[in-house]
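Example 5.3 — Ribbon-helix-helix CopG family protein
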Amino acid sequence: MTAKPRTRRPPAFDADTRLVDVETHEVLYRGEPLNEARVEGIVEGLRARSAANLVPGGKSLSRNGSHSPLLQFRVPEGVREALSSIAEERQVSLSRVAREAVVEYLRNHESA
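Solution (predicted structure tokens):
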């Protein structure tokens, strides 16, 4: 009878444990090499996104705990680029900027 090969589980994540030493191994992330400073910057960015509630599956916008309705539509490339620039400048999601724009549009047209 042949012994069944053991499968190794990846180690549990520990913030103090580096699975790869980026100082001795070249690791590319989004096309650029990682170093300790870049890793820290990425981690800080993720923490900021989490603190700003930019994590998918965040709070309900309906305020009753139910899933928020989804609205999808297409826009010209230039409109998307402009909205993306605003979102990046404000450090919020593109969805948030688009949502605020729609709400403002509705407010301006309620009185008409």
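Remark. The two ends are 82 Å apart (CA to CA).
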